Amino acid sequence: MPRTHILALDQGTTSSRAVVFDHEGHPVAVGQREFPQQYPRPGWVEHDPLAIWASQWSTAVEALGKADLVAEDVAAIGITNQRETTLVWERDSGRPVYPAIVWQDRRTADDCARLKADSVESLFTAKTGLRLDPYFSGTKLRWILDNVEGARAKAEAGKLMFGTVDSWLLWRLTGRTVHATDATNASRTLLYNIHRGDWDDELLGILGIPRSMLPEVKDSSGVFGESMEGIPIGGIAGDQHAALFGQGCFSPGMAKNTYGTGCFMLMHTGDEAVTSRNNLLTTVAWQIGGKREYALEGSVFIGGALIQWLRDELQLVRSAEECNQLAASVPDSGGMYLVPAFAGLGAPYWDPYARGAAFGMSRGTNRAHFCRAALEAIAYQSAELAECMVRDSGIDLKDLRVDGGAVRSDLLMQFQADLLGVDVVRPKDIESTAAGAAFLAGLAIGFWKDRDEIQRCREVERVFSPQRPGSEMVPLLAGWRKAVERSGAWES
Ligand SMILES: Nc1ncnc2c1ncn2[C@@H]1O[C@H](COP(=O)(O)OP(=O)(O)O)[C@@H](O)[C@H]1O
Ligand SMILES: O=P(O)(O)OC[C@H](O)CO
User: Fold this and answer.
1) Residue 306 near residue 409 (C-beta atoms within 8 A)
2) ipTM attached to this prediction
3) Which residues bind glycerol (predicted)?
């Protein structure tokens, strides 16, 4: 019997998902399970590695069950994951030595500040494309080695393994035999030289990380090993890179933006690792056949989460849909701007001391204006990322491909197109991340022939074309910048 489907495992920050895809690239069944978030101290965020594994495994069983398939129907598994989250476990027993330290965790802020004071940031940036920020894995891994009793000695004796979430899942799926990762996940660690394509001994030396605990870095599309059920694991990529692939952004200048809790915009820059002059990150788009392609990335920490804040904290609306209805009931925000710098600002400002603020309110400002200003804030933040990308790459954006939960908002999508002055393209299947992982895995085993065949699997649901002249948008953007400036450097 031919194997007819690909199983994508999408291990996200708040939930694990499994999606079964058919040969046309259609998602035929989904399993999803949330798992607990642990906040042991302010600014700390942890996950239980075993809960990650258990939830991911059960969603795979659920999705296959819903699709009425068994393991023998699955041609390959693709893994995609929340990135940067750091795990360390014992080589022999498989026991994690500490909970997973999640990408949002800020505990290593002082460590990063000390490294900056030692003037090594430019070295890290030149080699890794990243900044010295607690966001990335390197200082989290050092924290575990320095703070978990006995960890450093065990690591130096070769008894511990480090991995991002993909490595952890791969190691478990393969019956604890394969310790590997792909180049996209490696490129988020602060330890990987994105130009040479290898762990960097100089950076490992600065952070005091023994090389023996690092996974082998492989292609994003290629067979990593077999699951215990005999299914090849054919692809691995960090979730934003998988979404770029799933959106078919295969050539320089093509870009996608994922509107989830935060917003993550990536632009493919081809074989060239473009160094940003506008505070974006340089990252590996994917590595296939030993060849790395690169992307520029901008991350906005609060995107759709702003709508959740209106709903849960302010209780202005009961649902995201109601937020959209209210926003659409007014012609504009009435001059109001909402800057969601709840956790500081990400790219291009990187201001950890900015805080949330509302500006431009008058006696007539009502909750509809709040809703509209919130949706517009998501678009303003994304528009600024796009502008930086165009300046860095020297390539004009042709269109913007979008995915993630908040793209359901037509108002947001239209405002985004008006701000950018290019089409915003919403696909039928907004699960681009899982699709990307499935495509990478399917390519590796010949389930799909090439990228052209994958491109044909993409179906557009709606294109939002700019409707307002640029001259109308320029003063609005200027107002946004003024608001951001005034919310900056609030905490000290
Ligand atoms: N109709 C909508 N309008 C605006 N935002 C929405 C809408 N529906 C969902 N969202 C937002 O989308 C986000 C969830 O998207 P999702 O891609 O599932 O996020 P993540 O993968 O980061 O958990 C939430 O922050 C939610 O507020
Ligand atoms: O799990 P998500 O979708 O919130 O994505 C998290 C990103 O990979 C963090 O860099």
Assistant:
1) no
2) 0.97
3) 83-84, 135, 239-240
